[in-house]
Amino acid sequence: MITLLALRNLAHRPLRSLFLLFGYSMGVGVMIVLLAIGQAMLTQARDEKLVGGGQVTVLPEGMDIEVMKTGGVGGLYFSIANARFIYRQLLASPRLARDVATVAPQIDGKLLYFRAHGVERTVRAAGEIPSHSAAVDALPPVVAGAWRDDDGDRRWATPTPQELYSSIDHFHLPPRNVAHRDSWAEWHYFNVLSASGKEWAFISYIVAGDVRGEKWGGQVAVSVREQGGRTRRFTSNVRREQVHFSTDSADIEIGSSSVHLLADGRYALAGSARENGTGAPLKLDLIVTPAPNILFPGASIAECADTDESCPFASGYAVPGLRASASGSMCIAGACEQYSDAQSYHDHNWGVWHGVSWDWGATRAGAYTLLYGRVAPPDSVGATQPFFVYLTDSLGFRALFRPHEIAYEDGRTIEVNGHAVRVPSHAVMQDSRGADTLRIELSIDDAIGSDTRTSLIERGDAADARRILKPYFIQMKGRAKISGRVGGATIAGEGTGFFETYR
């Protein structure tokens, strides 16, 4: 009977019947697809070959799960750069302490080449921190013996302050194949602001030249500036035999001057130099204390591969003390300036600086601290790279922005070597990243300039002349005001900072 009714209805209303049949078929097909996807997701969730074992697995954006497992073209370079930064400043940071119980960093199936007794073998290696993997039930079974955290695991996950700062603030050797190796320079840079905000000092401990060869040396350079007044420059040049630095430590000795990283993460600075021209002696004895969590862990702006092919440019930068305080004294010809928890800053630069220019700034803005910058290599004429703006608060990293440009208003004029040079009086940059927005306004209180066409070892270029389009290096002090929204919350603040550009 049912079959007869269906046939009669199909004959009576053929178009309507076919439409209903088509809709029914589509519904069944969609259901089959959804069930298949659900089964595939369940299978993948149970797959022990996938990275991670907790509730959340972090993978690079755009990574295809199947490609990652099978090793296709899209999975050739599967990795997460700066993993320790992501671990310490994002996933395991104090900001997420109430939401994240455990973070288990892992790497699986890394291709390595093992050489022994003249034989090279291809191996695949995995790495993890045993206690962390066990906490998320992702530790593989141990057939015999025990697998426990070693000291390397501890240093990676929970380093002491001295271990943390040494890992990002150590010295380097220039790559063997880098061009213009004689322009290699690396330095510790500190600045200190007086309690009145009207005087400040720039302090640099510099190694410059071909440190793999014999033509290199060290320099201590201190610039002391009175706002709207004079700039006094003090230097001490030291032969290479009296310079000692380490590729494992932040410590450096340049003659009788030194920087030593203490066990608690503070920096002990000792320095002596003489004023250019007058010979007046300067001695400094400072302790610089970085604020916890507020740092930029370092980045290689350009790297050289370990090959025989020439590399034109290499550069790197780290900021262990993005927000710091300084205590101690600085004496000039017996007259001493005392500092007690003075606003301070510390960074570390390395690379070749032949024809390189940059825009840079670091400032406090109320409860926030930010760093911005952009480096222009010598072959970047006509190209425009976006800025990076790195925003932090007391819990560490808060957000990253990429403004395309900074809008300078050159409303001031200074004199550099007898030439009038127009320099910024005000600047603005802004950016939006999804729902997050940031606007930065700089008001410049003071500026000084240097002609980089003269020998400028103080800023890292030992060459006689720098062939850049904007030859005047401008150092500025001023006020920064920020506004915007990050993570759905309004941000605002104002404070004092230091900024650099070229004209």
Index terms:
single chain; alpha+beta; AttH-like fold; 4 domains; nine-stranded antiparallel sheet
Blueprint (SSEs and pairs):
Elements: H1 2-12, H2 14-45, H3 65-70, H4 83-91, E1 106-116, E2 119-128, H5 130-135, H6 151-157, H7 161-169, E3 184-193, E4 199-209, E5 216-226, E6 231-239, E7 243-245, E8 252-254, E9 257-261, E10 267-275, E11 281-290, E12 296-302, E13 315-332, E14 335-352, E15 357-365, E16 368-376, E17 388-393, E18 396-401, E19 407-409, E20 412-416, E21 419-423, E22 426-433, E23 436-451, E24 472-486, E25 489-502
Antiparallel strand pairs: 1-2, 3-4, 3-14, 4-5, 5-6, 6-10, 7-8, 8-9, 9-10, 10-11, 11-13, 12-13, 13-14, 15-16, 15-25, 16-17, 17-18, 19-22, 20-21, 22-23, 23-24, 24-25
Helix pairs in contact: 1-2
